[in-house]
Amino acid sequence: MVSAVDIVGLFIILGVNSVVAALLTRFFRVQLNTQWGPIVYSVLLTPLVLVILVLVMGGAGLGPNLGSAATVLGLTVLVPLALGMSFDYFWQPSPDEVEVPDNL
Predict the structure, then answer these.
(1) Rounded to whole angstroms, how far apart are CA atoms 104 and 53?
(2) What is the DSSP string of 63-97?
(3) What confidence tens digit (pLDDT) does each residue in 13-60 have?
(4) Residue 32 DSSP label
(5) Cβ burial, residue 22 (10 Å; 0-12/13-18/19+)
(6) CB atoms < 10 A from the CB of 34, how many?
(7) Gap between the Cα atoms of 30 and 82, Å rounded
(8) 28: Cα separation from own chain's centroid
(9) What Å distances lie between residue 57 and 7, 12, 16, 71, CA to CA?
């Protein structure tokens, strides 16, 4: 039986992974000046970071036992990756539209 603490732990994992996916997607969009570079890097490198975060947070006791590795990867990696990337691409302005001061 899943307890309320396990559900809260799962939501913490989902929230942290979604934020990390959005930040990494924004980082790749700002740093790479190619058309496909940010998408390729976001799809290939971000899941690796999310898997490491899941292993660390799951090892710390957060989240319930989801049963299979496919369920864990689907729920804690693919869903936050989709949420983070969609947040950055659809709700954040393009890096070209943001005004940055000249003197840093």
Answers:
(1) 32
(2) S---SSHHHHHIIIIIHHHHHHHHIIIIISPPTTT
(3) 999 999 999 999 999 988 888 888 888 999 999 999 999 999 999 888
(4) -
(5) buried
(6) 9
(7) 19
(8) 13
(9) 14, 9, 10, 16
